[in-house]
């Protein structure tokens, strides 16, 4: 059985932390990080706001990301091995098709790209308030450092715009409070995934 989990949400909301905890706990679990598909800095356009447009879908090679996810869908065991993840032997289950393979797709614009809308079995979205987001963002070191004014002039307005688009698409998303402790958020999602998997067996 193949199962794809989306973990989306605001920048610095805790997506990667949650993903890393889930990978360790879930069987045969692989991950695709949307951040791995950013285009090179010289390919990122400068917008009307005067900033390079990092927080829009065109800053990402979404076709490459889609084909990576399709590669996992076609052969999750092969994908896992090629990414150095050990797969539990199929002999543990009577029918190899019953073996559970899980893919977590993690990123800030997961639910704004129509070609991937149908692949997720479970969708989570982490949000935190403006002040906390700005505080967390200011403590992070990025390969391309944030220029002054980027958060208020580009990052937060784009987050609000994309979140509104996502909410209008009537997608079945479970919202998570990023102000909860890492443990609380993890326990909530882990329990939900376990219940969903049990219902599908």
Task: Give an overview in words.
By secondary structure, this protein is α/β, with parallel strands linked by helices. The chain contains 6 helices and 5 strands, in the order E-H-E-H-H-E-E-H-H-E-H. The chain has a 5-stranded parallel beta sheet, sandwiched between helices. The longest helix is centred in the C-terminal third of the chain and has 19 residues, at 150-168. The chain is globular.
Described by the principal axes of the CA atoms, the overall outline is: globular
Lateral strand order in the biggest sheet? 2-3-1-4-5
- Averaged pLDDT, please? 91
Spell the H/E element sequence: EHEHHEEHHEH
Structural class: alpha/beta
Q: End-to-end span in angstroms? A: 9 Å
Give the % helix: 25-40%
Oligomer: single chain
Continuous helix count: 6
**Low-pLDDT ranges:** none
In total, the number of strands is 5
């Amino acid at each position: 059985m193949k199962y794809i989990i989306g973990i989306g949400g605001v920048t610095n909301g805790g997506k990667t932390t949650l993903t890393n905890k889930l990978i360790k706990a879930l069987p045969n679990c692989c991950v695709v990080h949307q951040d791995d598909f950013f285009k090179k800095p010289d390919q990122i356009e400068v917008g009307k706001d005067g900033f390079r447009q990092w927080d829009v879908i065109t800053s990402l090679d979404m076709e490459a990301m889609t084909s990576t996810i399709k590669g996992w869908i076609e052969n999750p065991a092969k994908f896992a091995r090629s990414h150095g993840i050990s797969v539990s032997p199929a002999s543990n289950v009577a029918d190899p098709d019953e073996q559970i393979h899980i893919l977590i797709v993690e990123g800030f614009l997961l639910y704004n790209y129509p070609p991937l809308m149908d692949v997720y079995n479970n969708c989570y979205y982490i949000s935190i308030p403006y002040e906390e987001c700005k505080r967390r963002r200011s403590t992070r070191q990025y390969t391309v450092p944030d220029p002054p004014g980027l958060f208020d002039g580009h990052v937060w307005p784009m987050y609000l715009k994309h979140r509104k688009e996502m909410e209008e698409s009537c997608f079945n998303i479970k919202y998570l409070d990023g102000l909860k402790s890492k443990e609380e958020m993890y326990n909530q999602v882990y329990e939900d995934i376990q219940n969903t998997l049990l219902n599908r067996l």
